Amino acid sequence: MAFSALNIVRSFSSSSVMNLALKNVTVIGSGLMGSGIAQVAAQTGHNVTLVDVSDPILKKASSRIEKSLERVAKKKFHDNEPESEKFMKETLQRLKTTTNTADSVKEADIVIEAIVENMKVKHDLFKTLDKAAPKSTLFASNTSSLSITEIASVTDRKDRFGGLHFFNPVPVMKLLEVIRTQETSDDTYNKMMTFGKELGKTTITCKDTPGFVVNRLLVPYMGEAVRLLERGDATARDIDTAMKLGAGYPMGPFELLDYVGLDTTLFILEGWHEKYPDNPLFQPSDMLKKLVSEGKLGMKTGEGFYKHQK
Ligand SMILES: NC(=O)c1ccc[n+]([C@@H]2O[C@H](COP(=O)([O-])OP(=O)(O)OC[C@H]3O[C@@H](n4cnc5c(N)ncnc54)[C@H](O)[C@@H]3O)[C@@H](O)[C@H]2O)c1
Question: Which of the listed residues 54, 121, 144 should we mutate to test ligand 1's pocket, taking the one with most ligand atoms within 8 A of CB?
């Protein structure tokens, strides 16, 4: 049966009557991903605390969430103003922000980390969280490319630790990859799967391997496309056209690289290459390195493989 968490939210007038697997959610990092995760969790009836390092950053995140919620409300309720306003008001009431990391997890059922992609910074954060959060609190990382096992290694709750890998933009993308390490308990895994469905996502499960499912296939595919271009076998435009019309992909590899950010893709490849130097799929190409060194990072800088209007 199709499960829509939003419908559940709408069918109950008060969120307090909702029986959610993990009701109190703390999201650490209010950037692109964290603000999206916080929004979707609040939208689906969870009490959300969003954490970042400064108030101006949190203010920016709040206004980004509000704008995104307006789009959701418009799509969901069309011209029904009262319903739309009620949805916005109730969602925003469930969302608070803070810069106090330790306090933010005191009542959390789950903490989702979405901070910078750096093992040392994530370790420092999880050491703090492990001390501050109740023993029963589950921990999850939204990392794209780092090992969940390695992130969890600094905590005393490896059985209550898993990966929740969301996709950008979180309110739009339907997939959630739920990552089980060898130590993630059945109970933690089951709760994370239920939580994912409560967020309205379609969940898939993957072991803790580089890139999980989506990035493990996509990142080497983009790397191979760059090598094809580097050899002069075809133009970027023709490769993109080929993959859209010949394989039915919504974007070609170079459009995707420009969207994701060339620096992000290079960073992932370099991290994997360092860890697995013998895997040719993880070898970063000279062309990618050159474009990144020139600051051509894709849409965010106005130029990558294509020129974009900023
Ligand atoms: N961008 C994507 O498409 C994408 C997709 C899936 C997963 N991810 C993963 O999600 C995570 C976040 O990525 P993003 O693109 O949202 O990054 P981002 O740079 O947009 O946001 C990161 C936020 O974390 C905050 N932060 C840094 N250290 C912190 C700390 N110690 N405590 C609290 N806040 C802190 C920063 O101030 C910033 O606001 C990364 O691990 C990334 O690999 C990214």
Answer: 144
CA-CA-CA-CA dihedral for 291, 269, 34, 88, to nearest 10 = 70
Show me where the domains of the chain are located: 24-207, 219-301
47, 104, 144, 285: the catalytic one is 144
- What is the pTM (predicted TM-score) of this model? 0.92
144 is annotated as an active-site residue: yes
Superfamily (CATH H level) for 219-301: N-(1-d-carboxylethyl)-l-norvaline Dehydrogenase; domain 2 (1.10.1040.10)
- Does the C-beta of 29 come closer than 6 Å to ligand 1? yes
The single-letter code of the amino acid at 299 is M
Q: Give 48-95 pLDDT, tens digit per residue.
A: 999 999 999 999 999 999 999 999 999 999 889 999 999 999 999 999
**Closest CA relative to residue 148, chosen from 185, 187, 122:** 122
Q: Which CATH architecture has domain 24-207?
A: 3-Layer(aba) Sandwich (3.40)
CB of residue 268 inside a 6 A radius of ligand 1: no
Residue 88, amino acid: M
